[in-house]
Predict the structure of ABC transmembrane type-1 domain-containing protein.
Amino acid sequence: MAVKYVVVVVIVVLVVIVVVVAVVEIELVVVVVIIEVVVVVAVVVVIVVVIVAVVVVIVVVIVVVVVVVVEVVVVVVVVVVVVVVRWM
């Protein structure tokens, strides 16, 4: 979801740059540098979003594993209690 916003922001920035170039006639070198900076920032933002997504997935997997282990332990404890109560 955040990647869509990043792409929209990059497109808007590029459109603004093109309009500024058309109106003010900025030299091409300056425009290229601005576009390169925008692209680098967009790539860094995308990389950060991907890293955060991977971390979130890892945390979710860890939580699921912990929940499953706790459920198994609870089932084992219940079975042991039932067996002990029946033996008594």
Observations:
- The chain has one domain: 2-87.
